[in-house]
UniProtKB/TrEMBL annotation, chain A:
Location(s) in or outside the cell: Nucleus
GO cellular component: nucleus; site of double-strand break
Protein's GO biological process: DNA repair; proteasome-mediated ubiquitin-dependent protein catabolic process
Gene Ontology MF terms: nucleic acid binding
Protein name: DNA damage-binding protein 1
InterPro entries, sorted: Beta-prop_RSE1/DDB1/CPSF1_1st (IPR018846), Beta-prop_RSE1/DDB1/CPSF1_2nd (IPR058543), RSE1/DDB1/CFT1 (IPR050358), RSE1/DDB1/CPSF1_C (IPR004871), WD40/YVTN_repeat-like_dom_sf (IPR015943), WD40_repeat_dom_sf (IPR036322)
Keyword Lipoprotein annotated: no
Pfam (any one): Beta-prop_RSE1_2nd
Organism: Ciona intestinalis (Transparent sea squirt)
Domain of life of the native organism: Eukaryota
Protein family according to the UniProt entry: Belongs to the DDB1 family.
Hydrolase among keywords: no
Length: 1145, 119
């Protein structure tokens, strides 16, 4: 039995299709984008694209079409999944929301048939009465759409052409007429068919054309009045309507055109996109004939500019176009009627981040804070990039005011001065030797004066206090300013002109220190009265007098709460001390650290639990639970937050207390389910912050960030923040090396080859051509390539700085040599860290690479040296560090290479039991091998014999895409049909045969192709805070750019979550009427098996979005185990459990 | 060339002339709202069911051939337009359940005949 939880942490971002239509209403223009299993619906508005809904489909979307049957006032949506479930959807607006009605649904698959090699085709005829589908080779399925009948009856028709490249329904015919591009041994041809729906047959259509462009890949059906079709090929574009045949071979077109979008309703203009990211416009020039009909005279094409490599294009409105990309970021662009320099006619309005395809990734803790960051190899060709993904809370910036010097500020406080209503209207910023006052009126901010306020001193603290007064504490005095009289009414000065060193106050109490003497005051109308004074053994470094309340409103109003204890942190002995008020009698003390002094201290209550938080000068935060009666602090926990002194401020967010830790790594501390959660903020450095709830900026925060004062609101939930480092070439594999603080990255770029000879030309500046240092491998394989190719792929190793992401060094591999793998490792007893790169020499005439190299590089002091190289007989698909040796997967073999004292690689032993060993992971003496088509196997290295023996294998015919070791007995694999599975080794089995079999313990359909598994987590791993009873977080990256998490949970939790899942699958209705059970079932073209061993986190976490009533429906009758006894679960139990799972990503 | 571009790029169609007029990339960046996920808990059965096509293409073809043959025979023999043969329509759902009687064609005959040749 295996019990796991799988969930999407970052949704897919690669755009597969986009379409426009009038879906939400007849007068709305909608853009619908499909990203694998998800649809995003937008409405086009004057402000841009307004998001409407994200719709999840239980299936990979293969066909997505809007159509409008007669009599409908808006479009319907036809969807077909890759498992051939079809549905027709309609949008219905409801009170405050919407409903997606499944008008029709059903299974369109056949029991026999071969899935088409050229892809699924789905088309709808111009009258919206017939849906045409090519789901199996040699067969077309037609689904007549009759809105009135209860049943829709599809039928199959055999056509003799097996390899159909594309098909469309033609405009301008009374009976549905199909045009297809097909391929046979002679080449590609175009043919038309007339569909006879009544007799369920097809007959030859009005025209055909043989031997068209050899790479003709799609057809555009031109609407009336022009009608006819445009055939897009590799070198030519042809208009054909039976009578007329107009081909053009424009020289601008060098790469394959793969998508198009009609611009005009009359079908005269089309946007075309190619695989190099060029955007063209195609114009059909027409003549009006005597009889009023239009005929096409000529075709014209113009290059408009460069965009992200498009996968789909949609013309939206007024010259604005959406470019959906699978390989790079999608874009919103505006077309200019007059060419603008460089960018030509394309102006990018907006870009939409896409991580896909994630080829490889690594999880690193760059800031050493216990929080992982994922660095992915994303995109391909010119869209290749590294993406750095980290989890955190976002600040939505509403205003930023340039205030040079604010970096040096000593504090920020909000005040109510001009208007005594609830909201703040003034901001005090303190500097060394002076203070500045900013008045906020609406969204405007201006500097002002305040009567009675000393702005020629540094302010230590200021605040609105009781009895309609303000308090300002400077190093010289406490100044009490009356609101009504608008002047200073009282001043308290230390004796003997001593200076106040630190101070704080709350609504009615002031706590300050003069060196090592601590003073406590109470604020009365018109005066501050000193109530106590004590001498402490050392100088006071920081102090707090924050009252402990759970409800922030208790701090306001006439019956506000006062503090009954306070706390200080001291110099020299580095202790935190809790003192009783008003006597300042010490209740408890705790030593924090040996060397580093406390810099900020805070008393705060979260979820009814009292905490004492202390930060040290090195950015470490200690937190304790506090008993306010005894002052006793316990449960000491330590979290590294930043690397610099951190100051703590408390504010209210969403009705609960939240702490903001200002430092070089700003962090928000809050409580969820009685556990403290630390979440990074997406800002670089914050020196001080204060809450600011003003009229112009309600519920905001003011933050001193670099040279600006930033006003913004805080996100309620944490999310992933993505940083992009463009490479402009394809990244292949990445490895991190801590010693050199660098990433090793292998990439591939495409250079053009001069037609006259071997001269290569860089087509585009990219990471490998723009490195600080570029070196080249001496030629090793002097083989000349047969035949001429206009392009050549150049492989490189790049050394990239972990902080700046600059490319320090680019090492170019030999011609025809492709890098396939990289690792960073220490070898044998050698103390150096090396980057080891595996390559293959790739020639067109070889079915698989026959030789490659293992290269060992050392990067130190900005120098990259090739220490050793080893020629091997095959492609080095994967490398692993294995007991100080190099473990390599080379074609069919898995081999161990030893690192000799002469710094050379020497073959030790190998295992040859694979078809192609593609993936390796190792643990101890065990190696997990992922094979091209023979699932996974386990090898054991025997030191004494020097053998690598297969000890167990999975006999299923799975084509692997990634593997990972969960623990000694559990192995995770992802395969070609978008499934994951876990195999178990049965070490306790009695017979050898049983021991040699890996048993499938868990099966699940992810619905996306997983390229990489990595151990690691995106959330901060807190010391002593095990949020969930789960272990072994594994992250995975997919082709569509999603990042997921797999974790093993204990069996009780699994059972509980599993029953929630089963109930949710019933309560949450799927769009398109697809069963959750069948969607997640493990399905390949060999078998379909029910999913087991995994809980679908994506469904589970939908629970949190349900209303209370539905939550109760899910909870009803569920049992929960508590302290060994079972009881009925409440809604809150479920929320708690689901929230905890939610927090792992 | 440039003039051509003017012609080819002019007069972009407009659904609503106001669309994208207030587009501000700066504010758009900050106000980029998260798209909400559609969740339905409403019980709704699809109004229409897409049925499975259980008919075999081969059988349908054979019946069509047979019908045609009957039709032709009738025409040939009786030579009246009013033939009964085509009247017993072949609903696809019925076909598989029908008793399969051996048609007079040989199998080779069937596969070599294609739709395009037929017409």
């Amino acid at each position: 039995m295996s019990s796991n939880y799988i969930v999407t942490a970052h949704k897919p971002t690669a755009v597969k299709q986009c379409i426009t239509g009038n879906f939400t209403s007849g007068s709305d223009l909608n853009l619908l984008i499909s990203k694998n299993t998800r649809l995003e619906l937008f409405t086009v508005t004057p402000e841009g694209l307004r998001p409407v809904k994200e719709i999840n489909i239980y299936g990979r979307i293969a066909v997505l079409k809007f159509f409008r049957p007669e009599g409908e006032d808006r479009d319907l949506l036809f969807i077909l999944t890759e498992r051939y479930h079809g549905c027709i959807l309609q949008y219905k607006a409801t009170d405050g929301g919407c409903e997606i009605i499944t008008k029709a649904s059903g299974d369109l698959s056949d029991t026999v048939g071969r899935p088409p090699e050229t892809g699924i085709i789905g088309i709808i005829d111009p009258t919206s009465k017939l849906i045409g589908l090519r789901l199996y080779e040699g067969v077309f399925k037609f689904l007549p759409y009759d809105p009135t009948s209860e049943e829709l009856r599809p039928f199959n028709i055999r056509i003799e052409e097996l390899s159909v490249i594309d098909a469309k329904f033609l405009h301008g015919y009374t009976t549905p007429t199909l045009v297809i591009i097909y391929q046979n041994s002679q080449g590609r041809h175009v043919k038309t068919y007339i569909v006879d729906v009544r007799d369920k047959e097809v007959v030859a259509g009005p025209w055909k054309q043989e031997n068209i462009d050899a790479e003709a890949n799609f057809i555009i059906n031109v609407p009336k009045p022009l009608a006819g079709s445009i055939i897009i090929g590799q070198e030519s574009i042809t208009y054909h309507n039976g009578d007329k045949y107009i081909p053009i071979a424009p020289p601008q077109i060098k790469d394959t055109i793969n998508c198009y979008a009609p611009v005009d309703k009359d079908g005269s203009r089309y946007l075309l996109g190619d695989l190099a990211g060029h955007l063209f416009i195609l114009l059909l020039e027409s003549d009006e004939m005597m009889d009023g009909t239009n005929t096409v005279r000529d075709l014209k094409i113009e290059l408009l500019g460069e965009v992200s490599i498009p996968e789909a294009i949609s013309y939206l409105d007024n010259g604005v176009v959406y470019i959906g990309s699978r390989l790079g970021d999608s874009q919103l662009i505006r077309l200019h009627t007059t060419p603008v320099e460089v960018q030509l006619c394309v102006f990018v309005l907006d870009t939409y981040t896409n991580l896909g395809p994630i080829i490889d990734m690594c999880v690193v803790d760059l800031d050493r804070q216990g929080q992982g960051q994922v660095v992915t190899c994303s995109g391909a060709f010119k869209e290749g990039s590294l993406r750095i993904i980290r989890n955190g809370i976002g600040i939505q910036e509403h205003a930023s005011i340039d205030l040079p010097g604010i970096k040096e500020n000593k504090g920020l406080w909000p005040l109510r001065v001009f208007d005594t209503s609830r909201s703040y209207d003034t901001l005090v910023i303190s500097f060394v030797g002076h203070s500045r006052i900013l008045q906020l009126s609406g969204e405007e901010v201006e500097e002002t004066d305040l009567p009675g306020f000393d702005d020629e001193s540094q302010t230590f603290y200021c605040s609105n206090v009781c009895h309609n007064q303000l308090v300002q504490i400077t190093e010289k005095s406490i100044r009490l300013i009356s609101h009504t009289e608008r002047r200073q009414v009282h001043e308290w000065k230390p004796k003997n002109d001593r200076h106040i060193s630190v101070a704080t106050c709350n609504k009615s109490q002031v706590l300050l220190a003069i060196g090592s003497s601590l003073h406590y005051f109470e604020i009365q109308p018109g005066e501050v009265i000193e109530r106590a004074c004590v001498d402490l053994p050392h100088e006071v470094a920081c102090l707090t007098i924050e009252p402990l309340v759970s409800d922030p409103s208790e701090l306001e109003g006439p019956d506000f709460v006062t503090a009954s204890i306070c706390a200080v942190g001291l110099w020299n002995d580095n202790t935190a001390r809790v003192l009783k008020l008003p006597t300042l009698e010490e209740m408890h003390q705790q030593k924090l650290a040996d060397e580093i002094i406390p810099r900020s201290i805070l008393l705060v209550q979260f979820d009814g639990i009292n905490y004492l938080l202390v930060t040290l000068g090195d950015g470490t935060l200690f937190y304790f639970t506090l008993n306010p009666e005894t002052g006793y602090i316990s449960d000491r926990k330590k979290v590294p937050l930043g690397t610099q002194p951190t100051s703590l401020s408390v504010f209210t967010s969403g009705g609960s207390r939240t702490v903001f830790a200002c430092s070089d790594r700003p962090t928000v501390v809050y409580s969820s389910n009685k556990k403290l959660v630390f979440s990074n903020v997406n800002l670089k450095e914050v020196s001080h912050m204060c809450p600011l709830d003003s009229d112009g900026y309600p519920d905001s925060l003011a933050l001193a960030n670099d040279n600006t004062l930033l006003i913004g609101t805080i996100d309620e939930i944490q999310k992933l923040h993505i940083r992009t480092v463009p490479l402009y070439e394809s990244p292949r594999r990445i490895a991190y090396q801590e010693e050199s603080q660098c990433f090793g990255l292998v990439t591939l770029r495409t250079d053009s080859v001069d037609a006259t000879g071997d001269k290569m030309k860089i087509t585009r500046p990219s990471a490998s051509t723009q490195a600080s240092v570029c070196t080249k491998s001496p030629p090793v394989d002097g083989r000349s390539v047969e035949g001429f190719s206009a392009t050549a792929d150049i492989g490189s190793l790049l050394i990239i700085d972990q902080h700046t992401f600059e490319v320090h060094h680019a090492y170019q591999l030999d011609t025809n040599e492709e890098p396939l793998s990289i690792m960073s490792c220490k070898l044998g007893s050698d103390p150096n860290s090396y980057f080891v790169v595996g390559t293959a020499f790739v020639y067109m005439e070889e079915t698989e690479p026959k030789h490659g190299r293992i290269l060992v590089f050392h990067y130190i002091d900005n120098k990259l040296t090739l220490v050793a190289e080893k020629e091997v007989k095959g492609a080095v698909f994967c490398l692993c560090q294995f007991n100080g040796h190099v473990l390599a997967a080379i074609n069919t073999s898995v081999s161990i290479y030893q690192w000799t004292t002469e710094k050379e690689l020497r073959a030790e032993c190998s295992n040859q039991s694979n078809i192609l060993a593609l993936y390796l992971k190792c643990k101890g003496d065990f190696v997990l091998v992922g094979d091209l088509m023979r699932s996974m196997s386990i090898l054991n290295y025997k030191h004494v014999e020097g053998n690598l023996d297969e000890i167990a294998k999975d006999y299923s015919p799975n084509w692997m895409t990634a593997v990972e070791i969960l623990d000694d007995d559990n192995f995770l694999g992802a395969e070609n049909f978008y499934n994951v599975f876990i195999c178990q080794k049965d070490s306790g089995a009695t017979t050898d045969e049983e021991r040699s079999k890996l048993r499938e313990a868990a099966l699940f359909h992810v619905g996306d192709s997983i390229n990489t598994f990595r151990h690691g987590s995106l959330v901060m791993q807190n010391v002593g805070e095990t949020a969930v009873s789960s272990k072994g977080h594994i992250l995975f990256g997919t082709v569509h750019g999603s990042i997921g998490v797999i974790t093993t949970v204990d069996e009780d939790l699994y059972a509980f979550l599993h029953s929630i899942q089963n109930r949710l699958a019933k309560v949450i209705k799927s769009v398109g009427n697809i069963d959750h059970e069948s969607w997640r079932s493990f399905c390949t073209n060999e078998k379909t098996e029910a999913h087991r061993g995994f809980v679908d986190g994506d469904l589970i976490e939908c629970f949190l979005d349900l209303n209370r009533e539905k939550m109760a429906e899910v909870a009803k009758g569920l049992m929960v185990k508590e302290h060994g006894t079972k009881r009925e679960a409440t809604v809150d139990d479920l929320i708690k459990a689901v929230e905890e799972m939610n927090r792992i990503h | 060339m440039e003039e051509d571009k003017g012609e080819i790029l002019g007069n972009f169609p407009s659904f609503n002339a106001m669309n994208f007029t207030k587009f501000d990339p700066q504010s758009n960046d900050k106000k980029k709202k998260k798209i909400s996920v559609y969740l339905s808990t409403e019980e709704s059965k699809p109004q229409q069911v897409i049925k499975k096509d259980r008919s075999s293409i081969l059988l349908r073809y054979l019946y069509q051939q047979l019908d045609k043959k009957k039709h032709e025979n009738l025409k040939h023999k009786i030579n009246t337009g009013d033939s009964q043969a085509s009247a017993d329509g072949n609903s696809p759902d019925d076909e598989p359940r029908r008793k399969i009687f051996k048609p007079s064609h040989s199998k080779d005959d069937v596969t070599s005949t294609s739709f395009s040749e037929k017409t």
